[in-house]
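About this split. The held-out portion is used to measure sequence recovery: a designer receives only the structure tokens and must propose an amino acid at every position. Recovery is the fraction of positions where the proposal matches the reference. Here is one held-out target exactly as it appears in the evaluation file.
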């Protein structure tokens, strides 16, 4: 019998997983571009037709694939890439492997290992990514599976979409991942980590997934409670600081620089030595 509840992991590893997932998922936006299928629908693929003279797709906001390509690349170039190097410590992975081998029925330990393997997959280890996805699938289908397991499984499915070379599967996998994260938030709307997972995952996607407003809303929701939740021990500081940093980025991108500076200042105050706290400090130094 597995433990009925998975406690969420803490520390920089969780944030590194999510932020690096974002960087990976969005690093090649061209591979996400939808293409017409024989049935007249759309699927996500990287095999684009010539940019000139292409017909606009229904889900490309009226743009041709070439125009969508250029817009996706412009937007990607503006997105920050903040990584947490210590999360990739080999010793940590080895310790988790040993703990998981000794406690195969402990969902918490298995979830911790699945997250770390997913991080390795984000860094380019496809075997680790596939193993993590299988583990998260098992955890997510357990009776009474916690929302955090559903959310991370959704993240794994979006990563599987990025890895897939079968263009007709890309859209299916991405939509499944988003649906799982939506279900997780619906099941635990007040869980700030679950909401942050959806926020950072949606933020990473190209514009034609129409998830930008969702990401902005989720970042704002987490950022609004971040300092209080961290001080109360309800949210890991690394996640709270990351939420504040990205909320500031979103606000700045939308022209509200004054509010962005407030978010970055709070991020620095909450976690001055964290990667996102340092990134927020750098943004403040460049913002007038």
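Reference sequence for scoring:
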């Amino acid at each position: 019998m597995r433990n009925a509840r998975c406690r969420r992991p803490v520390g920089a590893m969780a944030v590194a997983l999510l932020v690096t997932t974002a960087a990976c998922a969005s690093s090649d936006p061209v591979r996400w571009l939808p293409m017409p299928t024989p049935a007249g629908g759309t699927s996500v693929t990287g095999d684009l037709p010539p940019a000139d003279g292409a017909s606009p797709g229904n889900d490309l906001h009226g743009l041709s694939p070439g125009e969508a390509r250029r817009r996706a690349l412009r937007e990607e170039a503006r997105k920050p890439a903040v990584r947490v190097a210590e999360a990739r410590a080999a010793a940590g992975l080895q310790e988790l492997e040993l703990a998981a081998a000794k406690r195969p029925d402990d969902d918490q330990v298995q979830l911790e290992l699945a997250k770390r393997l997913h991080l390795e997959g984000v860094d380019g280890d496809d075997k680790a990514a596939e193993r993590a996805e299988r583990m998260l699938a098992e955890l997510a289908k357990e009776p009474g599976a916690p929302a955090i397991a559903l959310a991370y499984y959704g993240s794994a499915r979006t990563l599987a979409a990025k890895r897939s070379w079968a263009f007709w599967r890309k859209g299916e996998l991405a939509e499944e991942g988003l649906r799982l994260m939506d279900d997780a938030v619906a099941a635990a709307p007040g869980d700030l980590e679950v909401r942050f997972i959806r926020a950072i995952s949606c933020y990473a996607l190209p514009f034609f997934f129409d998830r930008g407003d969702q990401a902005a809303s989720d970042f704002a929701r987490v950022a609004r409670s971040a300092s209080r939740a961290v001080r109360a021990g309800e949210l890991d500081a690394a996640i709270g600081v990351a939420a504040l940093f990205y909320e500031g980025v979103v606000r700045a991108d939308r022209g509200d620089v004054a509010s962005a500076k407030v978010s970055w200042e709070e991020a620095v105050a909450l976690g001055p030595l964290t990667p996102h706290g340092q990134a927020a400090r750098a943004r403040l130094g460049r913002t007038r």
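Annotator remark: The chain has twelve helices and two strands.
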